[in-house]
Fold:
Amino acid sequence: LTAGYGKKTILHDISFTLESGTMTGLLGSNGSGKTTLLKSLCGLLPHTGQVLLDEVPLHQLSPRALARQCSLIGQRSGISIDISVLDVVLMGFNARLGLLEYPGKQMKESARQALAAVGLGGMEEQNYQTLSEGQKQLCILARTLVGEAALLMMDEPSLGLAPLVVRDIFSIIQEINKQGVTILLIEQNANMALKIADIGYVLETGRITLTGSGEELLTNDAVRAAYLGA
Structure:
């Protein structure tokens, strides 16, 4: 995969595989190309090369078919309107609803269960805009739970959150992975990401420079010096 903005190339011949059911951590400093890579994978940025899901090029899938299989959690939710917490979670069912079809009783119950699972039980009717940033991220994770996508891509889910909230976020990410969901976790919090990742990649100036298991990268001197302050 090669991608960039205008005439400026950011990613240079990136190639890797996400094995089904695994947790993959992608590390990199600011400007290394992490978000550019995620936008390219999602088809939001022109690129050369191919992105395959179960051997099928992503560009061949309709937006609805892609939404059924892939879920993306960005650094910010992008939700700027007044909307209830429950309705945000119910958005996770959109790819499975027909035209003008509304979520049914069972879907609403599943959404309530997902909110309880992330620690937001009893907040279903609260305005999403009144939540803390950590609670908003938990709400989006609940939306992911009901969506039942096979692949989850996350862009720095711990960004700007308090340490205790980050711990809860990563615990839920682990639980989602244990349910068989394949996860690509893009993170600057290398210590937390590598502790839960099966495999990790280090991205520097648009190229993958290091690859290894999470444990291997945690003990790698170059990684420790660059990301772990040791």
Summary: The CA atoms of residues 70 and 151 lie 5 Å apart. Residues 163-178 form the longest helix (16 residues).
